[in-house]
Amino acid sequence: MSTTSEMSLPPEWNDDERMNFMFSEFKENRDVNTTDWDSKMDFWTALIMRSCRRRGSVIVNLQDLNKTFQRKEKTPLGLSTVIQTMARCGKIQRESEFAASVDCGWVSWSVGMLLVKPLKWTFSTLLGSNRVPLEESFVVIELVKEKAAELLKVYRSSDFSSCSVVSFQELCTLSSNICADESTLCMALLQLQKDKQVIVSLHEGEKIVKFCQLGQDRVSPFGDIDIGIYQLQRSEKLLEERVQKLNLEADSILYFNIFLK
After folding, report:
1. What is the DSSP letter of 74?
2. Torsion angle defined by CA atoms of residues 3, 6, 10 and 16, in that order, rounded to the nearest 10 degrees
3. DSSP 8-state class, residue 131
4. CHMP7 winged helix domain spans which residues (predicted)?
5. Dihedral of alpha carbons 158, 163, 165, 170, sign
6. Domain segments of the chain as ranges
7. Is 141 buried (19+), middle (13-18) or exposed (0-12) by CB count in 10 A?
């Protein structure tokens, strides 16, 4: 997680009086002073978005935000309210809910044990708690849509564009410059799947991704032909790698024989 020293901060960050206000708790009733309440909310919302963009991430949680925005050994007291408000406005969504909104078997792979976390939130909500769990992860909707668009663009401008099916590992390499980590890639793929631009499946224990091709409105389901073509491409790649290895071994033997002479 980035720190404030690593990111561009607004001018008022150096104003102690202003920051004392920004670091204070929100009033329980916004109507007491809507101008102050909204200015504080806008300040933190913009700063969270800026921090995520700088890191290239689409996921936030309260624990990391508290560390990121420490100032003079103080932690902002109102970030829980900011998270709740952003969630109510649809700017962010719990990671597990975001994944669960995709109508296919991807959820079990992309989220895994994270599906346990919403139970804590649901339980605390039923008990009337307004606290956001420190480690609860949220997806920033605007940013994940941007990442999804970037990922699709990178795929279509790459050598892989001639292949409708790509392995997840190949996609990790391809997206290394736009996705900060595997989690960011997973969220971008989830967004593309929601948009019907990709579909994800498992083939012989390997995660594979099928992309919508140019001229199509949506990606078509995996079929036997897709799997057959993918297997053929994998076999060709393995054969090429084997040939390269044999050539290197042959060159080594040749040089060794020349050296002996």
Report:
1. B
2. 50
3. P
4. 144-212
5. negative
6. 1-89
7. middle
Per-residue confidence of the chain (261 residues) as pLDDT tens digits? Answer: 556 655 678 999 999 999 999 999 999 889 889 999 999 999 999 999 999 999 899 999 999 999 999 999 999 999 999 999 999 999 999 988 888 777 654 444 443 333 334 444 444 443 445 678 888 899 999 999 999 999 999 999 998 888 889 999 999 999 999 998 888 998 999 899 989 999 888 888 888 899 998 888 898 888 888 888 888 777 777 777 677 777 777 767 767 666 665
Count Cβ neighbours within 10 Å for each residue of 213-236 and write b for 16 or more, e otherwise.
eeeeeebeebeeebbeebeeebee
DSSP state of 138: E
* DSSP letters for 169-230: HHHHHHTTTT-SSHHHHHHHHHHHHHTTSEEEEEETTEEEEEEPPTT-SSPPPP-HHHHHHH
**Structure tokens given for 47:** 């700063």
Q: Where does residue 27 fall: left (phi above 0), alpha (psi -120 to 50 degrees), or beta otherwise?
A: beta
